[in-house]
Amino acid sequence: MFDLIVIGAGPGGYVAAIRAAQLGLKVACVEGRGSLGGTCLNVGCIPSKALLTSSGKYAELSHLAAHGVVVEGASLDLGAMMARKDKVVGDLTKGIAFLFKKNGVELIEGWATIPAAGQVKVGDTIHQTKNILIATGSEPTPLPGVEIDEADVLSSTGALALDAVPEQLVVIGAGVIGLELGQVWARLGAKVTVIEYLDRILPGIDGEIAKLAQRALSKRGLKFQLGRAVKAVEAGGNSLSLTVERVGKDTVDTIEADKVLVAIGRRPVTRGLGLEALGVAVNERGFIAVDNSFQSSVPGIYAIGDCVPGPMLAHKAEEDGVACVEGLAGLKGHVDYDKVPGVVYTDPEVASVGATEEALKEAGIDYISGKFAFMANSRARSTGETDGAVKVLASPDGVLLGAHICGAHGGDLIAELVLAMAKGATLTDVAASCHAHPSMAEAVKEACLDALGRAIHA
Ligand SMILES: Cc1cc2nc3c(=O)[nH]c(=O)nc-3n(C[C@H](O)[C@H](O)[C@H](O)COP(=O)(O)OP(=O)(O)OC[C@H]3O[C@@H](n4cnc5c(N)ncnc54)[C@H](O)[C@@H]3O)c2cc1C
């Protein structure tokens, strides 16, 4: 009899299993895909960041002349780039198997179903357990009328494993995944067009920062068609033909491409577990409904990560997992969803935490704001990474409510503001702490000073 069986070894599930074992529970983790780490390590965060880094190095070569570095005869070895990505993924997924052993988590390989509360079935074996934690994650959302074959019409998984650089790549969806993978292939030589239904990129990100990102990405070769809906993708000769409708108008355009990436979002994976028969409630979008302790509508069955409501991010899944099992072990676990950072690893990076300006306006909340452009930051000037800005939002008495960054290293810079918000810090707390010079972090301090009406370098 186990204390806990976790279904799914993604960042939510494997972290929960390890933490539960550390807390003295007898734990097993079931994984069906034949490799640990879930979407994140296998076909998500890690391979995409490996390719972003490799393609970034290639793209950098064409800018080195401005630094007085002349590179001749550079060429692309896509096979080597993909092999490196696969090795990074392989090493990390094997690392989880090691951590399971070290912490005494039993790995059960295979696809799980839940015949009844307290039972997890894998193959012909039914395992008994006091508690079940569903961490089955998510999968790409399909676009009606567009069939993904992973050869020409791709999901993010196919776009991480192409064996040649497409000439014309159309990305459907200007969200995080579409922009990151779009930039990978643009840097390697593809002509990339991003088609988005909304009239803006990066829905959910502060509008002003998203505009800065769009401008910077356009400068780096991405083309955007906003306010457009892809209605069909058809194969014709050597290329694909996309039927694209202008939203709210009668106009229909046709666009040719040799590859299409469908990146319109992700949906929870809950099919086939037997949830309906068990009476586990899901919401209208298929996410498992849970209470504050991550318990579903059926006692003893818990759920975390991408298959429950909230931001679909690896670190959020991990936080969920730890909070859930700490609760099971009698500790107090809690996740503050208002302070979960999100990062888009494009060049420039886009990072954010807390409320956007649009959300504050809509909620009728009084706020003050400050902004500082990297163009005025001396470190950015010396590296040549001057695109973008830091923006902070705070209550009239200075308590930070949100922070948004478009710029190089934004994903690292946001950590200071996440901590500040977690501790209820004010603009003055951040601005009064000494920031190294010259550093990109000085832009964070200056944005806070700007909100206080006393920026030095703006
Ligand atoms: C291209 C891409 C890039 C991304 N980049 C980032 C990023 O930079 N940062 C970030 O925070 N997030 C990123 N994400 C999102 C991140 O991958 C997810 O938020 C995260 O993986 C969710 O973790 P999870 O544990 O909830 O689920 P998952 O990682 O999806 O893991 C679920 C696991 O459960 C297994 N499973 C499902 N059903 C069963 C069953 N019945 N039996 C046994 N096993 C089962 C699956 O095989 C899978 O391994 C990215 C996603 C994609 C697709």
TrEMBL record:
<keyword id="KW-0676">Redox-active center</keyword>
<keyword id="KW-0520">NAD</keyword>
<dbReference type="InterPro" id="IPR016156">
    <property type="entry name" value="FAD/NAD-linked_Rdtase_dimer_sf"/>
</dbReference>
<feature type="binding site">
    <location>
        <position position="306"/>
    </location>
    <ligand>
        <name>FAD</name>
    </ligand>
</feature>
<dbReference type="InterPro" id="IPR012999">
    <property type="entry name" value="Pyr_OxRdtase_I_AS"/>
</dbReference>
<dbReference type="GO" id="GO:0050660">
    <property type="term" value="F:flavin adenine dinucleotide binding"/>
</dbReference>
<dbReference type="InterPro" id="IPR001100">
    <property type="entry name" value="Pyr_nuc-diS_OxRdtase"/>
</dbReference>
<keyword id="KW-0285">Flavoprotein</keyword>
<dbReference type="InterPro" id="IPR050151">
    <property type="entry name" value="Class-I_Pyr_Nuc-Dis_Oxidored"/>
</dbReference>
<keyword id="KW-1015">Disulfide bond</keyword>
<feature type="binding site">
    <location>
        <position position="265"/>
    </location>
    <ligand>
        <name>NAD(+)</name>
    </ligand>
</feature>
<feature type="binding site">
    <location>
        <begin position="136"/>
        <end position="138"/>
    </location>
    <ligand>
        <name>FAD</name>
    </ligand>
</feature>
<dbReference type="InterPro" id="IPR023753">
    <property type="entry name" value="FAD/NAD-binding_dom"/>
</dbReference>
<feature type="domain" description="FAD/NAD(P)-binding">
    <location>
        <begin position="2"/>
        <end position="321"/>
    </location>
</feature>
<dbReference type="GO" id="GO:0006103">
    <property type="term" value="P:2-oxoglutarate metabolic process"/>
</dbReference>
<keyword id="KW-0547">Nucleotide-binding</keyword>
<keyword id="KW-0274">FAD</keyword>
<dbReference type="InterPro" id="IPR006258">
    <property type="entry name" value="Lipoamide_DH"/>
</dbReference>
<keyword id="KW-0560">Oxidoreductase</keyword>
<dbReference type="Pfam" id="PF02852">
    <property type="entry name" value="Pyr_redox_dim"/>
</dbReference>
<feature type="domain" description="Pyridine nucleotide-disulphide oxidoreductase dimerisation">
    <location>
        <begin position="340"/>
        <end position="447"/>
    </location>
</feature>
<feature type="disulfide bond" description="Redox-active">
    <location>
        <begin position="40"/>
        <end position="45"/>
    </location>
</feature>
<feature type="binding site">
    <location>
        <begin position="312"/>
        <end position="315"/>
    </location>
    <ligand>
        <name>FAD</name>
    </ligand>
</feature>
<feature type="active site" description="Proton acceptor">
    <location>
        <position position="437"/>
    </location>
</feature>
<dbReference type="Pfam" id="PF07992">
    <property type="entry name" value="Pyr_redox_2"/>
</dbReference>
<feature type="binding site">
    <location>
        <position position="196"/>
    </location>
    <ligand>
        <name>NAD(+)</name>
    </ligand>
</feature>
<feature type="binding site">
    <location>
        <position position="49"/>
    </location>
    <ligand>
        <name>FAD</name>
    </ligand>
</feature>
<dbReference type="GO" id="GO:0045252">
    <property type="term" value="C:oxoglutarate dehydrogenase complex"/>
</dbReference>
<feature type="binding site">
    <location>
        <begin position="173"/>
        <end position="180"/>
    </location>
    <ligand>
        <name>NAD(+)</name>
    </ligand>
</feature>
<dbReference type="GO" id="GO:0004148">
    <property type="term" value="F:dihydrolipoyl dehydrogenase (NADH) activity"/>
</dbReference>
<dbReference type="InterPro" id="IPR004099">
    <property type="entry name" value="Pyr_nucl-diS_OxRdtase_dimer"/>
</dbReference>
<dbReference type="InterPro" id="IPR036188">
    <property type="entry name" value="FAD/NAD-bd_sf"/>
</dbReference>
<protein>
    <recommendedName>
        <fullName>Dihydrolipoyl dehydrogenase</fullName>
        <ecNumber>1.8.1.4</ecNumber>
    </recommendedName>
</protein>
<comment type="similarity">
    <text>Belongs to the class-I pyridine nucleotide-disulfide oxidoreductase family.</text>
</comment>
